[in-house]
User: Fold these one by one.
Assistant:
Number 1:
Amino acid sequence: CFFYSSHVEKPTLIPLLKARRMDTEEPSMEYLRDLQRQDVDTDRIKSLIDELIAMGTYRFEFIGTGEPFLHANALEFMGRAKHAGSTCFVNTSGYVFDKEKMDALLKMGFDVLRITTMAGTRDMYIRTHPKVKETTFDELQDNLLYLAERKKALGLKHPEVELICVIISKNIDGLMDFAQFAVRMNADRLQYRAFDDVNDPGL
């Protein structure tokens, strides 16, 4: 993620991007860290979803400047949109998946999980995610297999799983492993994306 990554010195938040583009003094790390700790207001988001539904919005994409599932009310937000009959997508690292979240997504009929793993093997995952536990990839894999098994058992097609590999120097030699991983996980789609520096001269 541009906003917090072990591969970048500073989180690439908007105030930092703006300072770099305007060639002005960059905000302090303390200020940037405070921004990273901010979370969306639960009541405001629920109200916003309701307003958008009332306006006729029928497609919701849950993304942001961080991992959506880290918000305590993420599933409530998603369920609110699905309950209104909307089509829902989420961009996630899958880092905080567990079987309870998978069951909740199955129950609400969530549409598409876009999961950026950047790796198809445990070694590659550790290389591209240097600060995670060594078991994180195994846990992600177990949760994706659980989801595939539950979908099959229940005769469901959703949520569809799209696995994404952002190509960087750390994973360029593992692109075929990523494809094989997608097959093993019964993914509906896989996508390779070239790294995007978001026009940040410091990234």
Note: The chain has a mean pLDDT of 89.
Number 2:
Amino acid sequence: MTSQRTRERLLGRLLEQGIKSMEVLDIMRSTPRHIFLDEALAHRAYEDVALPIGHNQTISQPYIVARMTEACVMGGKLDKVLEIGTGSGYQTAILASLAKKVYTIERIKPLLDKAKKKLKLLKLRNIDYKHDDGTLGWEEKAPFDAILTTAAPQTVPNELLRQLADGGRLVIPVGGEGQQKLKLITKKDEEFREDVLNLVRFVPLLKGQLHR
């Protein structure tokens, strides 16, 4: 179900799809995706697909996790990273294995509580958690070297742009229901450069709708 061979097959597929960062691939090799899924779906953990985690949310497709993480890593240092949308905690685990400090925000309290337990199992102690509206970012901890958003707003929140460090990267899906654009926005000397990485489909980033 969770054999090394199954994981290696997935990593081979990610390489074929253009993932270049061996650092990211090595972390994904050693991070057990199956523990972030309910038991009934754990046998599908190393398929390259998004899977449900409850509350109308999903754990992202491994290729998209790798693509987004690579975009963060290849831009330079990762002392402080902000993740919007903790979800299952899988993307959080990948980031926490690469960055000095990860700050993660989730609006759905039961998902956040469950993710905390899974991440503690992996002995990842460089993560701060917050139950809040992700569109606001985490101003008191800014600026961030990278901000990664696992849900799609209609437009890029200005709050997130303001919380980037100089040279910082915002990796964010943008658009309405259906197809969205995964964007990499880089800040340099108060100017922003925008690149489109992929066409994607994420759950919406909802403003002000906290769930306890």
Note: The chain has a mean pLDDT of 95.
Number 3:
Amino acid sequence: MNKDKNVYTLNKTEMHHVAHERVSEINKEFIWGFEFLAQYPQSVTFFGSNQFPESNEYYKSARTLAGRIAKELNYAVVSGGGPGIMEAANRGAFEVSGRSIGITIKLPHEQVINKYLTKEFDCYYFFVRKVLLSFSAEAFIFFPGGFGTLDEFFELVTLIQTRKIEGVPIICVGSDYWNSVNKFIKDELLSRGTIESEDTSLYTIVDDHDKILEIIKAVPIRNGIHYPHGHETSN
């Protein structure tokens, strides 16, 4: 490693060594994360803003819905483990003695972890966390949120559109919010031919909790993310 005016540079050999170590650490985190999730073969993942307090209507809805999923379906409820909608979902499952799972993240400043987790897996890499949140869940439930929520929403829609994930419902709760997103998709994407008309059916906007539970019950149990032929992992 060379030092010049307090700036460090790596030669090719050093870069190769650092890259090898980094890939090894990433690989370990994925393996440990998948092993952690294997304990919960039936799960539903919640997404949404971390800004909503417990008095918010979406927080209340997520809390009630998660409680019903945990109690009536006996599914694990998974979230990013933080505040807002994540807390509401974990709280709902926790309050009915259900499995309340958090996929958390290490940050330079300590992440706010909600107190309703029964188990958690702490990630160093954001992209590992995103994969784990989408891995093997039987349904994805989206409440209103900001850039992060929309990022996760459009990434999962893309994975389903390209059939990297198959047969997993994306359920959007909070029709007053999601109808506006849906209007943008139709007015700006569909109208310009950047998506097909059937792509607008990749997600479902529904507020009725009974209907949501029926959707989840109709979904077969997943084994994870689809890998193309020749890339299957051995058991």
Note: The beta strands are 2-4, 7-9, 43-47, 76-79, 100-105, 119-123, 139-142, 170-172, 203-205.
Number 4:
Amino acid sequence: MPLPIDPSEKLKQIATGFALAEGPVYSRRGYLLFTDIRNQRIHKWENGQLSVFRENSNRANGLTFDHQGRLLTAEGGGRVTRTEKNGSLTVLAEAGLQGPNDIVYAIDGSIYFTDLPKGRVYQITRQGQVRVVAETAGPNGVALSPNQQHLYVADYKEGGVKIHAIDPDGALRPGKPFAPLTVDGLKTDETGNVWMASLDGIEVYTVNGEPLGKIPTPDRPTNCSFSGGVLYITTPQSVYQIQTKVFGTRTF
């Protein structure tokens, strides 16, 4: 199977000048949000214009939305928050956390997030309970399969991606090796392919763990995210986009 991108497509830089860009997520309202961890900002890119969505972001890293379109943020400063529609912040998890890294929203209303320094993957249940659902050396990126039955976790310290089956109550079964790659952030598409920000580009694997190819990037990518068939990619200094032949998995 070929990489699901037209060979004529090229990366397009849409923003640059950041200290450590991460966490891209596209809103159904028509704009992209992403973090600049070291400068403690969340940026907004809309209609080709860049603005600051939030200052003093507490080292915000991974971002996603819930089903109401509210922003969920894994803050490296030690908490997970939700930005309400009036702009206020609600703390969803904080006690015992060291450095929440990446986050994904499940259609059952629960939230999964990683805490890399703690070596743990957490779930916030629909009832608001925060519980550990997996432990691994360096959990970084996290993504759900299209059918919501599996969770992918990139272990940055071990240098591999694991796949966990999800039990009906949201608990995770022990992870199995999926890809022998050092990966930061990752996402899935509607066909089940996994798009992984690895050492020198976005590596794409099928649901069966077969490599499809790579999108080379000018710098080491940190994460990626879809808006329909457009893939957005963050590197430490810049944000890029490229058109694909598939649509990303929607979890909100």
Note: The longest strand covers residues 21-26.
